[in-house]
């Protein structure tokens, strides 16, 4: 068995060693007789890290509960997150809920009731599916309103 694995490895290494790879940057114009100028745009230095929402939620201008003000103050006391923190208000299962976006990567987003009690974490985590307590949140949430987003 070891001999078979060694032989396959040697064959793969030998076959790949003869291939040459040519790498060009996006700003290098294509080579050839049929090219009349550069069609590749120059790179920009603009910050493209902060995601842009696909749709803009209607802004919620109603008074915020005290627990929500405390959550916002906690976010503002930390360094700016990437992506920025957003808090949205929805109707879910006939109740008003608040969704706070995840700070980054494999972390959970959170859904709270109107008293600030954590209901579930609908997305994020290693699987991206949250904690499993509200698997239908994305499908059944309605009446989206932006409550707050980090202005920094």
UniProtKB/TrEMBL annotation:
Residues 23-47 are annotated as: Disordered. The keyword rRNA processing does not apply. Keywords: Signal. It comes from the Bacteria. Residues 1-17 form the signal peptide. The keyword Methyltransferase does not apply. Residues 36-47 have a biased composition (Polar residues). This is DUF6970 domain-containing protein.
């Amino acid at each position: 068995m070891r001999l078979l694995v060694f032989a396959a490895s040697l064959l793969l290494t030998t076959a790949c060693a003869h291939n040459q790879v040519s790498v060009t940057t996006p700003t290098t114009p294509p080579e050839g007789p049929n090219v009349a100028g550069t069609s590749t745009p120059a790179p920009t230095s603009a910050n493209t890290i902060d995601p842009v929402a696909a749709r803009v939620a209607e802004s919620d201008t109603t008074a915020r509960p005290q627990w929500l003000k405390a959550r916002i103050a906690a976010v503002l006391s930390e360094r700016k997150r990437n992506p920025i923190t957003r808090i949205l208000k929805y109707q879910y299962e006939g109740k008003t809920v608040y969704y706070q976006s995840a700070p980054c990567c494999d972390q959970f987003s959170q859904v709270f009731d109107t008293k600030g009690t954590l209901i579930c974490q609908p997305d994020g985590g290693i699987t991206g599916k949250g904690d499993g307590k509200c698997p239908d949140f994305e499908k059944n949430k309605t009446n989206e309103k932006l409550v707050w987003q980090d202005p920094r």
